[in-house]
Amino acid sequence: DVKVTQSSRYLVKRTGEKVFLECVQDMDHENMFWYRQDPGLGLRLIYFSYDVKMKEKGDIPEGYSVSREKKERFSLILESASTNQTSMYLCASSLGAGGVNEQFFGPGTRLTVL
Amino acid sequence: EDKVVQSPLSLVVHEGDTVTLNCSYEVTNFRSLLWYKQEKKAPTFLFMLTSSGIEKKSGRLSSILDKKELFSILNITATQTGDSAVYLCAVPHQGGSEKLVFGKGTKLTVNP
C-alpha cells in the first residue's frame, strides 16, 4: 500500500514564525502535491512537484514556498506565518509518468497560527 | 477556467436509504473524473471514470459518467453510518494534467 506521511497532525505557531510542513511518500512516486482545505472552499492546490527540484505553482501559492531535494520528500514552507494561513494542509502523491493517476493523500496537518 | 460543482452540499439520510450525489464539470479536453471519500482525515480514492455510460461499482457504491451532459453521479445503496463522510469529485486540470481541480464536496450524514 502507498503510504504518505506528514510530520505533524496538529501544529500551533505564532504570527511571523517560519513553519515547515514535511511530507514523505514511500512508493517512488514522481508527483507530489500540497493542498489546503478550508470549510466552504474545498481543496485548493498550493504547489505541485513533478520531479526532484522541480515545482509548479498551484492556485494559491502566495505566502508559501516548497522544497523537493529528494524524490520521497516534499516540504511546504511558510516563510512568515499569518493568521489567514490557519488551515488543514494535505499532502498527496501520484505515480506520474504521464497520464492521469489517482492521488494518494496523507493524514493532514491542522495548522493554527495565533 | 476549469470548474467542478457538486450537489447537494450536504445531505442527511437514515440507514438503509439510497443516495445519489452529483458532480458537474466544465473542463478543456476532458479525459477523466475521479471520486474520493474523506472521513476524518485523508481523502481516499473511490473511482476514476473515463468512458461515458460505463458504470463502475464497488460494493454498495457505484458511479457513472455522462460526457455529453458533463456530469457524473455517485450512488450509495443501503447506506450505513460508516458511509458518513465528505465525498469529493475532481477532474484533471485542462484535461490531462496531473493537477486535479476539486469540487467543494458533498457532506453525507447517515443516521442510525
If you had to describe this structure to a student in words, what would you say it looks like?
The complex is a heterodimer of chains A (114) and B (112). Chain A is an all-beta fold. Chain A has no helices and 11 strands. In chain A, the strands form 2 sheets. In chain A, strands 2, 4, 5, 6, 9, 10 and 11 form a 7-stranded mixed beta sheet that branches. A 4-stranded antiparallel beta sheet of chain A has the order 1-3-8-7, with no helix packed on it. The mean pLDDT of chain A is 93. Chain B has 112 residues and is mostly beta strands. Chain B is built from no helices and 11 strands. In chain B, the strands form 2 sheets. In chain B, strands 2, 4, 5, 9, 10 and 11 form a 6-stranded mixed beta sheet that branches. In chain B, strands 1-3-8-7-6 form a 5-stranded antiparallel beta sheet, with no helix packed on it. The N and C termini of chain B lie far apart (41 Å). Chains A and B meet through strand 5 and strand 10 of A and strand 5 of B.
